[in-house]
Amino acid sequence: MKKNVFALFIIAMVFIVSAIFPQAGFADVDVNIGINVPLPAFVFSAPPAVVFIPGTYVYAVPDVDIDIVFYHGYWYRPHMDYWYRSTSYNGPWKHIDKKVVPGVLFKLPPDYRKVPPGHQRIPYGQLKKNWKTWENEKHWDKHEHKSEKKDDHKEEKKKHSKGGKGKH
């Protein structure tokens, strides 16, 4: 009988202590069930051309019905709040945690798949061969800067040519 009373006393004390000091109670249990959302199959019949997204060193595949980008040697595909990564544009795709996805991919403009007028499509072979060099040497920063200078130069010419023939 003494053992039953003592056991009941211990149980009551645990209950009282956990009610008064919830942190001192039992540890929380956190169960995450990974539901694998299947990635819809998409197969390119030929290596895709890409378009550079200014200011990012991310390359998007235009003119397809899926979101697929290239960044730092990997291809990324978001699908239904999940992210997938591959070393090839045709997979195999592996589900990755959002914490592993480079932050720049979350900051892409909403219309990043639309190709602005004048933007060149970069053939896959050039991307594969040059992406590291382009990034290390900040190729696209220089290219954008030159484009801006050309535009500024054109504007400057327009300003000077508007006055017609005048005295100098």
Q: What is the subunit organization of this protein?
A: single chain
% residues in beta strands: 5-15%
Strand order of the largest sheet: 1-2-3-4-5-6
Q: Quick one: overall form?
A: elongated
- How far is the N terminus from the C terminus? 117 Å
Question: What is the tally of beta strands?
Answer: 6
Helix content: 25-40%
**Could you give the order of the helices and strands?**
HEEEEEEHH
Number of helices: 3
Mean pLDDT: 75
Radius of gyration, in Å, reads: 29 Å
The secondary-structure class comes to alpha+beta
What can you see in these coordinates?
- It is a single chain.
- Strand 1 and strand 2 form a beta hairpin.
- This protein is an alpha+beta fold and 168 residues long.
- Helices cover 33% and strands 14% of the residues.
- The C terminus is likely disordered.
- Strands 1-2-3-4-5-6 form a six-stranded antiparallel β-sheet, with no helix packed on it.
- It has a domain of 95 residues.
